């Protein structure tokens, strides 16, 4: 007598995105040998990373490490000098339209159409993605409510605070339910309650099969929120893997300082003492 074959648990990504085939173990984002120089200055110097599908991936590094430049090249916003970027099997630079359909992006220092109201801006983002008006209207209302922007829906984006602007840009990145979310500093300027709401939204998104990449300087947040992390400095990857692998028994912050170095004792600022 043969025992019945064990039932395989459904792939959450396949459930959430039934129209999109998911190749087993295919990374959500695969970066190989990415490099970029501005004039004589090398900003990114041969970065390779695999972001597993369904992961919550943190990208950390000191100021000027090359995080924004890497993410801009990975999302089709900045052309690399060298290297390849593939999103769910689609090459970002040879098939940009297909690749961009799979992604939601919150770029650094995002410039928005700020003479639109918040509601108009997110609606515009949905229509631009080819969605029908009725679906867009429903999702816009859901997103504004979830991000605590419903009462400011009719305010021009130019009159939003920095944190509100970040949130409306995030709503615009989420409206088409992308498979991969790439968020450059999503919590910068955002108040703690809104940050907790955003974390809940992102965790639910990952639980249902989506993949999130966030860049951040807040090590504690990355340690608590992410399951994978890469440390970048000087345009190189210094360490990458699960958060536990990278922190190797220390706090992520201590490990980060150890890897990156650069601590000094405020030497030369003795004049700043008040007594
Ligand atoms: N458009 C540009 N022109 C010239 N240099 C640039 C440009 N963009 C970035 N750089 C340089 O490339 C390097 C990497 O910058 P990048 O913005 O990618 O770093 P980052 O890790 O995102 O930094 P931060 O944490 O401060 O935001 C820096 O030395 C920066 O001065």
Automatic annotation (TrEMBL):
Bias (Low complexity) ranges: 1-14
Keyword S-adenosyl-L-methionine among record annotations: no
Location of region: Disordered: 1-20
SUPFAM superfamilies on file: P-loop containing nucleoside triphosphate hydrolases (SSF52540)
Pfam families hit by this protein: ABC_tran
Name of the molecule in the record: ABC transporter ATP-binding protein
Membrane-topology annotation of the record: Peripheral membrane protein
Lineage: Bacteria, Bacillati, Actinomycetota, Actinomycetes, Micrococcales
GO molecular function, one term: ATP binding
Keywords: Antibiotic resistance, ATP-binding, Nucleotide-binding, Transport
Domain ABC transporter: residue ranges: 29-259
InterPro entries registered for this protein in UniProt: AAA+_ATPase, ABC_transporter-like_ATP-bd, ABC_transporter_ATP-binding, P-loop_NTPase
Signal peptide: none
Subcellular location: Cell membrane
């Amino acid at each position: 007598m043969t025992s019945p074959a064990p039932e395989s648990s459904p792939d959450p990504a396949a459930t959430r995105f039934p129209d999109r085939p998911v190749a087993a173990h295919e990374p959500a984002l695969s970066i190989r040998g990415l490099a970029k120089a501005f004039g004589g200055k090398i900003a990114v110097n041969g970065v390779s990373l695999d972001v597993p599908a369904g992961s919550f991936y943190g990208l950390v590094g000191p100021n000027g490490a090359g995080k924004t430049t890497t993410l801009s090249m990975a999302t089709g916003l900045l052309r690399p000098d060298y290297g390849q970027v593939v999103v769910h099997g689609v090459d970002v630079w040879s098939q940009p339209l297909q690749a961009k359909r799979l992604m939601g992006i919150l770029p650094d220092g995002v410039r928005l159409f700020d003479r639109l109201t918040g509601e108009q801006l997110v609606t515009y983002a949905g229509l631009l993605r080819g969605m029908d008006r009725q679906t867009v209207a429903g999702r816009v209302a859901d997103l504004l409510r979830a991000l605590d922007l419903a009462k400011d829906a009719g305010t021009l984006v130019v009159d939003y605070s920095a944190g509100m602007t970040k949130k409306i840009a995030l709503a615009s990145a989420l409206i088409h339910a992308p498979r991969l979310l790439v968020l450059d500093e999503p919590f910068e300027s955002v108040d703690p309650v809104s940050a907790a709401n955003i974390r809940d939204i992102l965790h639910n998104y990952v639980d249902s099969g989506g993949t999130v990449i966030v860049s951040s300087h807040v090590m504690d947040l990355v340690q608590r929120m992410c399951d994978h992390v890469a440390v970048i400095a000087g345009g190189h990857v210094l360490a990458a893997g699960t958060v536990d692998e990278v922190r190797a028994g220390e706090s992520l912050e201590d490990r980060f300082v150890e890897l990156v170095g650069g601590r000094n004792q405020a030497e030369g600022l003795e004049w700043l003492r008040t007594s």
